[in-house]
Predict the structure.
Amino acid sequence: MPKRISLGFLLLFLGTQVGITTKAVQAQTQVVPTQTTTKSICPAQLGASIDAVINRPVFSRSRWGILVQPLSSTQTLYSRDAQKYFTPASTTKLLTTAAALQQLGTNFRIRTSVYGGGNGVLYIVGRGDPSLGDAQLTVLAKQLKQKGIERVNQLIADDTYIRGDIVNPSWQWEDIQSDYGAPINSLILNQNVFNIRLLPQSVGQPLKVIWNDISEAAQWQVINQSVTTAENQPNSINVTRDLKGKILQIQGQLALNSQPELVSLPVLSPAEYFSRRFRSTLIAEKIPVVQTLVSSSNGKNLEELANVESPALSELVAQTNINSNNLFAESLLRALAIKKPPTENQTSADAGLEVMKATLTQMGVDSTGYSLVDGSGLSRKDLVSPEALVQTLQAMAKSPAALVYRASLPVAARSGTLKSRFQNTPAEGIVQAKTGTMGGVVSIAGYINTPKYSPIVFSIMVNQSEQPVRVVRQAIDEIVVLLAQLQNC
C-alpha cells in the first residue's frame, strides 16, 4: 500500500532543493538515459536534438506528442502534434488534482459520520474518504463508547452518498482485478483492498495461503494451483479471479527458501467489507452488534454521534500524484460533485467531470483539448493533448495552490514514480513531473527548474508503441535530460 506522505516535509524539501516560488511554481522501473554526460544546449539546437531521438527506426510506428514552453510564457520551444489527442494514462491526474485544489481548497476534508437512529440503530455514512483505515474505525468506536453506546441492534452502512458504478465500465478486466483498480464507493476502507500472504511449504506442495482478514476468506472460493519448488528456483506468482468474482485462482511457484509473497487484491463488495470490519472493531471495544445491513438513512435528521475526517486535500493530492494512486484520484473526482450535485439520472463521477471541465476552462485550459471518462487515467477512453497538460501546469503555477500542487509531483531521482529515474543525470532533483504508463502508452508532464535557463513546462506522450516500456521510457528520459540542460545562448 502507498505510504503516507508528509506534505510539510515535501514543501521544505522542494523549497530548498529546487527553489520553488509561487510564480514558478504504478511504480516505475529504474531507467538511466543513454546520454548522461553534462552538456549545454541552446534553444535553437533543441528541435534537432529531440528529433534525433524520436525519429529512430525503433519508433517508426509510434505516435509522439510533445510540447515544451517556458513556464512564464506561451512561447514554444518545441512542438510535435501538441494539439492532437493521446491516451494519457496517469498524467490525467494532473487535471483532476488541479481542479480539486481550485474548487475545494487545500484544507478541504472528507467527513465520515456515525448517526444514531434510536432503538440501538446506528448509521455509518461515508462520503468517499480514500484515506480511511482500520485505525479510523477504532477512533469512531471509541467515540461511540464515550457517548455511552453499549450495544448496537442494527449497524446500517449507508453507501449512497456517491452515486454510480463502483467500477468504471470502461476499465479493462485485467485492471479491475488488480489492487490499483479497486472499486470506488462512499464507504472506502483500507483503499478497498485486502491482503493475503503466500508461504512456501515442502517441495511439491501448494503454497500456504494466510489471510490477514479471516472474514474476507469466507467470501471466496480458493483454487490453489501453486507449488513450492526447490531452493533458489525462480519465483512466479499470478493471482486472478473469475468473471463473477467469487473464485480466487492462485498459480505459480515460490522457492523453498523464499520470503512470503504479499498479494493485495480488490474487495468484491466494499460496503459489506466496511460493515464487517466496523462490526469487528465495535466488538473489540466491547460494543456487541446484533445485525449489520447496507441501506440508506433516508435523509433523516439524525444526531451525529461520532466522526472522523480525512487529511487535508493538500495531503490527498500528494498521495494521488506522488504514488499515482488511482483510488485517490477517483475519490477526488467524485468530491468535486459537492459543487454541483448529480441530477436524478447522473452519477457522481459524471457530475465531477462537469465541475472539472468548468474549472479548467476558467483557468484557461482549452476544453477541446481533452475528453475524459474518469479521474485517474485508467480508462483507455480518456483522451488528452500535450497542450492541455501544459496549459494546466501553467495555470496552476499562477494559482494560490501553486506550491501544494507542485509539491505533489514526484521529483526526479528523489520520490514517487520518479525515484528510480534520472539518477546521476543533469535532470536529477530539478524535474518535478507526473508519469503515466499502460500497455502501448508512456507519458510524462511537469516542470523543470533549469539552472541556466528560465523554468520550463513540458509534456511528452507516446502512444501506439509496440516497444517495451523501458525502451520508450529511456528515450523520453533522454529528451527530459536535454531539456534540463537548456541555457540562454
User: Anything to note?
Assistant: The longest helix spans residues 348-363. The first strand starts at residue 63 and ends at 70. The mean pLDDT is 91.
